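Work Package 3 committed the consortium to producing structural models of liganded targets before the mid-term review. Because experimental data for this complex are still outstanding, the team generated a predictive model from sequence and the ligand definition alone, so that downstream docking and mutagenesis planning could proceed in parallel. The input record is reproduced below exactly as it was submitted to the modelling pipeline, together with the SMILES string for nicotinamide-adenine-dinucleotide.
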Amino acid sequence: MVNIAVLGCGRIGAMHAANVAAHPRTNLEMVFDVNEMAVTNVSNAHQVQAARSAQEVFASDRVQAVLVATATPTHADYIEMAIAAGKPVLCEKPIDLNLERVNRCAEVVSKSTVPIQLGFNRRYDPGHAAAREACLAGKIGDLHQVIITARDPALPPRAYLEEAGGLFRDMTIHDFDLARFMLNEEPVEVFALANALIDPVLGRELGEVDSAMIILRTASGKQCHINNSRTAVYGYDQRVELMGSSGMLISDNRKPHELKHYGAFGVETAEPYQLFFLERYEEAFMASIDGFVNCIENGATPLAGFEDGRRALILAEAAYLSMAEKRIVQVSEIG
Ligand SMILES: NC(=O)c1ccc[n+]([C@@H]2O[C@H](COP(=O)([O-])OP(=O)(O)OC[C@H]3O[C@@H](n4cnc5c(N)ncnc54)[C@H](O)[C@@H]3O)[C@@H](O)[C@H]2O)c1
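The resulting structure, written out as tokens with the ligand in place, is given here.
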């Protein structure tokens, strides 16, 4: 059993705490959040200690590893504190919204052997993982194209958008990571088009976009198309398509169940897709805990590590530059 402390007891932290408590190889040792109500709710739910400070968590001999699910601006500091305390860390994405801060953190990371796993949960999705494995096993011949569709069910509240750091750093960051994971090669060129089509007024006020299409190309010429929307009224739309010289693979959407209705006005009428990430990636989040334990106990390399988080952010910055300058950007242009 690995004793894990969860920092951050908000939307995703509460889920991670429940997963750590339920996982057969981990024990939820303590939780911490600067919001007293949030930490009390989660500590009561699992009958575990609520730490009074992050320092208390990192100083505790009983805590063997930490899971950071706090607000994004705290991630780099907590990664550095975990390294200083010698505690393996699973940190939610993104590492930070600022590439310079991430690069400074990378220097600390490079001098340490403490395992760091990034919260790119989609790599652990059974369908996405099977698609990648089949592709690597040559089932579709040579991979030519990757199409990633990622559409959220509804525009988040204004307060969330004000803090999120922009579509590409907050949301598309998952897709940039998935693109690298599926292509198995670094993208070298990025072209991005994006607009505020769902709420143009809010978009203008915040300087934010809600709908995007992004094209990536690798050095060998493999292509990837990412398409994002912050509002898919039919549910959380998450698909990955891999096109190769001898076939195609699709990791498809999921519905809550497979019931289909047949009537006079329609056939095969089904439920909307699973609501959002907590439902759609439930297994993936739990599998990411398996992966973390494997890193801690067996010295495995994290499936998604710090450098993956840094590279995904570089692609986000390249996409912003492409959008601003209306041109194809070389990834090497980003510092
Ligand atoms: N992997 C995914 O699919 C996924 C999905 C959602 C969110 N996230 C990421 O998870 C993180 C949290 O997102 P959320 O939606 O749970 O947000 P949230 O606002 O619901 O929760 C964040 C929590 O962090 C706490 N917090 C803020 N500063 C803190 C500090 N210094 N120390 C301790 N606690 C602190 C807040 O009080 C809050 O309870 C974000 O970085 C977000 O990008 C990832």
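Reviewers should note the following from the model. The first helix runs from residue 11 to 22. These observations will guide the Year 2 experiments.
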